[in-house]
Amino acid sequence: MNETLEDKRAATTAVKSLGLLTDLRARALVLVAADSKVGSSLRLLIQLNADDLELKRLVEEFLRREDSGQAKAKGQPFIVSLLVPFSMENKAPKEECQLSFDRPPSYLALLDSIEQEPTALKLEQVNFQIKAGKEFVRQDNWTRVVGDRGAIKLAIIPQKAKPLSSFTNEEGMKLLMGPNYQEAETKPFALADLKTSARLDDAVMQVTNLVFVKDLLIHLGVDLALRCLRSEPRLHLKEYAKRELISPLLYVASVLAGELEVAAEFSTKDSDAAGSVDFVVLLNSFVISVLEGKLHDTLKAHEGQLYASMHACREQYLRMKLKKRKRDTDPMTQVPSAGILTNGTAYLFYKCYHGGQPKGQPVLTCSEFMPVDLHKGISADSAADNVMKVVKTMVQLFVDQKKALSSFWSQRAVQ
Predict the structure, then answer these.
(1) Crossing angle (nearest 10°) for helices 239-257 and 380-414
(2) Which of 49, 109, 262, 401 lies 20 to 30 Å (CA to CA) from residue 410?
(3) Model-level pTM?
(4) Helix, strand, coil proportions of the chain in percent (round to 5)?
């Protein structure tokens, strides 16, 4: 007999597991040790003892366990059955689909596959929870929930994005900068050096009959003076009335920065936040700055909404233009996010960029409080002078954002 040590060990383990009587165990060892194919030898043992029904039962039970183990070792698929609502509003009936894995996946691999599944409710664009029976599945309990199953049924519970206006300052900062956020640091923002004798773009001259930058600034003063002629800005009781003093500055600054668009009531949505932003400044669909207009002087109380707006506008662009997925890292970290808070008679500027320590940590800066004296009966010259610092800050912010975006796309074209 060509016996090997490995054969003997396999035979001994197999035969002991049968729980045979001593004489049968001895006979089995002789048969099994002579052949490395344990299963074949055990079947021969049954043939030689055809009348021993108990022996037959024990051997067949052992062989079933062996066959099951071998099938599992060969990667029998692990099946995940998903129940997914058809939409956020219509949560029943549910769409059923199946995911197949070579082995039970990690929690992150499970999420990745779920988000890629082409369901009616686009799971890659919404936040959701997962339930197995009555238990919510998380990264810390997924392994225990799976156990030794070969399949599992999961239900998807979608979570609606929060309205922009509902974000607290802490929630908005955490959304914009991540869980390890730091409070905004107050720093002076740069002012643009406006050359009043410089000519305006041909397109601007054609539609306005204005020729020089000086003419545009004079026009701004006249526009503001007219808006203050019959009403007192400081007594406006509606946000839309405050915006009447905001839009002239924003449009002039976008013209002076060049090639920018301004959109009002801009709808934005990502998996965490959704709503309408009062104003956005765009360059080739990228929101280089958001602006939220508020009614009262307590501007800092609305920072959470501004931060959520900055985040949602950016994520929407990354998803639509760069096909960024929900948990992918931001590919545009070299382009800051920018925002402006104002009530028409005071301004705060914000910029979030990646450059802190540890390396790449988001940094948030805020300008000093910039009051603007606009009152009933103000002259055009005084109105233009009083808003000049704000206009110059806007122009420089927009120009810096344009440069950062242009640099990003130039580098991306080379790669």
Answers:
(1) 60
(2) 262
(3) 0.76
(4) 45, 20, 30
